[in-house]
Amino acid sequence: MILTEESVRKIKEKLQQYPQPKSVILPALTVAYRQVGYVDADIYREISHIINIPTVEVAEAATFYTMFAKKPRGKYLIQVCHNISCALLGADSLIGYIEEKLGIKIGETTEDNLFTLVTVECLGSCATAPMMQINQDYYEKLTKEKVDQILEDLRSKA
Amino acid sequence: MADDIKDKVKTDVPTVTFTMDGQEVTVAKGTTILEAARSIGIHIPTFCWHPKLKPVGSCRMCYVEIEKWPKLAVSCVTEATDGMIVHTESDKVKRGRRATLEFLLLNHPLDCPTCDQGGECELQNLTFEHGIDDSRFDFQKNRFTSDTDNTVFDDKRIGPEIILNRNRCILCYRCVRANKEAFGEYDLGVYERGNIAEINAAPGQQVNSPFSGNLPEICPVGALTSVDWRYKMRVWLAGKTPSICPYSSSGSNILIYTDDNKNLIRRVTSRCNDDIDDGWLSDITRYGYQIANSEERLQTPLIKKEGKQVEATWDEALEVICNRFKEITEKKGKVCIGGLISPSLDNASLYCSSKLFRTVFNNNNIDFRTDYRMLPNKPDSYFGMLCNRSFRITDIDDSDVIVVLGSDLIREHHNEYLRIRKAVNFNNARVFSLNPYSVKSADVAQAEIVYNIGTDEIILVAIGLAAIEMGLVEQGLAQGFKEKVKLGSLAEATEVCGVSSDDVKLVARALAGDGKVSVIVGELITRSHGREAVASALFNLSRLLGIDKKGQMAVLARYANSRGAEKLGLLPIPTGAQVEMLKAMWGKFPDAEPQTTDAMLALMHKEEISGGLVLGGNPIMLYPDRQFITEGLEKLDFLVACDLFESETTELADVVLPMSSWAEYEGSYVNLEGCNQVACQAIKHIGQSKPAFEIIRLIAEKIGTSLFESDEQMATEIEQLLSCEPDNATPDNFVDVLPLSEEVDPDFPIPLCICDDPHHTGALTQKAPSLTNFTGEAYIEMSPDLAARLEVSEGQPVRVESPVGKIVMPVKVSKHIDNDVVIIPRNFSQIRVTSLLMRKKRVDRVRITKVDE
Fold first, then answer.
1. CA–CA separation, A21 vs B120, rounded Å?
2. Fewest Cβ atoms closer than 10 Å to its Cβ: which of A67, A148, B16, B468?
């Protein structure tokens, strides 16, 4: 079992909230994702046992949503916006700088499992472009120096 | 079904009238434009739409123009309404379809020269039809690469018989929908989305349901192809012969594709008969043909000389048979020859056998039920009455209540299982599954009742008592019903069956309602000792709740021509009407004592029967007491066995004759509803094999009596016998139900059920390589709980012992089973499972122990 007793309990609670177990697929995936940090075939199977739905239905829903990571990610998920406002203000060179600095490409994770770099579409903070989101926090009006500082701080906190 | 019910079902449906391509069309309200077009012969191209599935409107190929509509309409999901003016071939429509094709070809590899679907590919045909020669999308196509060798030729085996090529897939979802909707299987899905969306097997699973062969057939492109047919030949070079499935009792309509140069069958597809198979084939039907191509087929007659079977000519073999049969009859009289005939043979073969025994050997020693135990040797049984009732497969479709008693349909009646699923999906039928163990096919059931094994008749009594207790039946009937049962109350009955009275009440309430009813009795009952008690209990229940008047109840015939065998009188005791007819045709009918399979075997033990004829079917493998039948046949002075392959039975024979498979001659078969269908000759005879009816006629001629003056005479006689309709008789009043109970030996506590594997039937399919790819060897299926108590896991061997036998085989853990009943398939000759059985037992019980490796 990958899912903890706590997660299983949460999923079972969700079952009480909906008339059909099928509706619990997404809430259950969210619970699993929060616990594990990603979802994969083993987790689909566990969820399917808990809510009594064929595994394939859980897998179909999970793969449809890109925000469920399908493999382990670093401790910090760096999501750099490369949508129009950020792009105009140099998001692409910023992404290149982060890639170089961390030694990874978009979609990859550093060897110390600290950082995962992905690009995202508009996060609604165009006034403060270029920007990125790391885990739950926004970092705005970015420059290379600011990025250096942010990554340094995170590394020392880890 | 009674006529008054038919009228009740038929209601006046409102209609709509509209114009399509200048033609006025009137259809039932709710009909889609596409369906309406098809009904008047207008062809609208489709990919995702399939006549047997609910429409989804995902491929956009079926565009039509509707006047005053702003955009083109997707005709498969648009209902026709009054006054609509529809154009199916306008320029706008053609442009729309062309654009759709351009999108569909966006990522398609256009690898037609190496694609097996070529020639029967709907994408190829429609692209051809719409003349697209260029695409505006000139960027890199999205490519799935093979998991194994990183080539873009993405061929992935997602099941024992299915290969998936994701690049060719146009995402019509026909396969996924058919799998979920029609078959109730969840081993195939759609993952990701947009440009990288893909169809694939469920994580860690194989696409291996008993209906998986339908998926390549309904795939409109070359994304799903079958391992069996791939790259064997181009489809337009194959000969095509209409035929009938020789395994299923409903007689699925099939098309046989042949390589006529090599005299081989290459594949089998559906001929889609809505009244019978609904266009779906089970894998057994689809791949079972491979036995005809098998290299192990018997090629020449064999004669036993000094204990060894040696090749011989037909003349020599017939000479020996004639002489030995004559010798035996001269010594002991004519009653000393017995025949066991396979019910999978065609009408002519069965009828000739009956005529040979009754007119030449002048006895009634003939039976086709070689896998039943303890058949009654007397006429007028309730079970016989139940067998002779009419049944319509299509009546399942609109039944409101369906009760399945003693059958895992997915193991014996695949077509009917799909029908029941259809009734649930499209007609909201309520299904109740009553079985001694929890079965896979109960997944459609509203309630599944698992009763104690061997209490099949008590559960029916309990339903009756529940209806009485709830006050659903009138007093007089209730009194009559109660008098005939030994159990006073519902509580007592449910106690015996080990079920909850709430569940039983649910069934009783459904059966007592006004809805149309279908009651199906399966093989767990018919092959068992308890069949007579169940039949009488069912007749009582029917009288109590009026089942007869509001639907159908039947024992489903089991093999391709079981019903034909019954109708042709290939039973020791034919019905009175049949005897009269035969007397008139033959001018005589033997008055010898009728002998069932059991009775014949007993006489063989006593050496009162000393000549035997086995026509197909391998009874040693299937008869539920291996020791008894083997010893019986061994005691014979002379045994003739005709079969396609060498088997346990042919091993004992003094003369073995090679029989042709069903595909090698034209024959007719009667399906379980009494419908007579013809299978045409698809290939030439293999080796020196001959059709069974010809063998029988040759034997008769050699002995000195010609069975028929001409082929026409044979056809007329058969036709005349088949014209006898089922009499639908019921007992005049409530009848005694005589439950059979037996002591349980504490040393052998676990009940054993012998069934067919979902991918096999009878003794022959083990010779079909595709089917053994699904299941290749025997297993013992048990609940996770029992496996845990035995401390064994999937695949580990266990020793299974009964008072008479002992075998070792691997365990298969089945989650859906939740009580202590084990199941062993009977289709694998290497495990002699029938050696565990005792024919006099109603329930066989075994002891299971772990084998230390």
1. 41
2. A67
In the predicted structure, residue B140 carries a pLDDT above the cut 90: no
- Which residue in the set A45, A54, A60 is minimally distant from B191, CB to CB? A60
Class of domain B142-293: alpha beta
Residue A9 has pLDDT above 90, yes or no: yes
User: Sorting pLDDT into bands at 50, 70 and 90, what band is B149?
Assistant: low
Q: Confidence band (pLDDT; 50, 70, 90) for B2?
A: very low
- How far is residue B590's CA from residue B488's CA, in Å, rounded to a whole number? 46
A70 domain residue, yes or no:
no
- Hey, where are the domains in chain B? 2-106, 142-293, 313-380+561-659+687-722, 392-555, 750-850
**pLDDT at residue number B10:** 47
* AA letter at A108: E
Is residue A146 in a domain? yes
3-state secondary structure of B500: coil
Q: Say if the Cβ atoms of A55 and B205 lie within 8 Å.
A: yes
Least confident among A52-66, B2-16, B388-402: B2-16
Same domain, A38 and A89: no
- Which residues, including other chains, have CB under 8 Å from residue B139's CB and lie 6 or more apart? none
Set of chain B residues whose Cβ sits within 8 Å of the Cβ of A63: 191-193
Q: What distance in Å separates residue B445's CA from the closest CA in chain A?
A: 16
User: What pTM value is reported for the model?
Assistant: 0.91
Separation in Å, CA of A149 to nearest CA in chain B: 37
Contacts of A44 in chain B (CB under 8 A): 203
Mean pLDDT over all residues of chain B? 92
Instruction: Give yes or no: residues A120 and A141 share one domain.
Output: yes
Give B712's Cβ-side CA count (13 Å radius): 0
Minimal CA separation from B4 to chain A, in Å: 40
What is the CATH T-level fold of the domain B392-555, as seen in this structure? Dimethylsulfoxide Reductase; domain 2 (3.40.228)
| Contact yes or no for A54 and B186 at CB 8 A | yes
The answer as to whether A28 is a domain residue is: yes
| Confidence at B834, pLDDT banded by 50, 70, 90 | very high
Class for domain B750-850, per CATH?
Answer: mainly beta
If you measure CA to CA, which chain A residue comes closest to B200?
A56
Residue B191 and residue A41: Cβ atoms within 8 Å? no
Amino acid, res. B94:
K
Q: Identify the CA nearest to B539 among candidates B383, B391, B772.
A: B383
Residue partners of A75: CB distance under 8 A and separation at least 6? A113, A114, A115, A158
Residue B273 in contact with residue B678, Cβ under 8 Å?
A: no
Cα B477 from chain centroid? 37
- For residues A53 and A80, membership in a common domain is answered with no
**Residue B653 — very low, low, confident or very high, per pLDDT cuts 50/70/90?**
very high
What CATH number matches the domain at B313-380+561-659+687-722, 3.50.50.60, 3.10.50.40, 3.40.50.300, 3.40.50.740? Answer: 3.40.50.740
Task: Name the residue range of residue A49's domain.
Answer: 5-64
Residue A96 belongs to a domain: yes
Mean pLDDT of B839-843: 91
In chain B, residues with a C-beta closer than 8 Å to the C-beta of A59 are 189, 191, 202-203
Are B152 and B143 spatial neighbours (Cβ–Cβ below 8 Å)? yes
Q: Identify the contact set of chain B against chain A, taking CB-CB distances under 8 A.
A: 186-193, 202-205
CATH class of the domain whose range is B2-106: alpha beta
10 Å CB burial of residue B663 (0-12, 13-18, 19+) is buried
To the nearest whole Å, the CA of A146 is away from the closest chain B CA by 36
CATH code: domain of residue A33? 1.10.10
- Report the alpha-carbon distance of residue B339 to residue B639 in Å, rounded: 10
Q: What is the 3-state secondary structure (H, E, C) of B811-836?
A: EEECCCCCCCCEEEECCCCCCCHHHH
pLDDT in tens, B713-747: 999 999 999 998 877 888 888 998 888 788 889 99
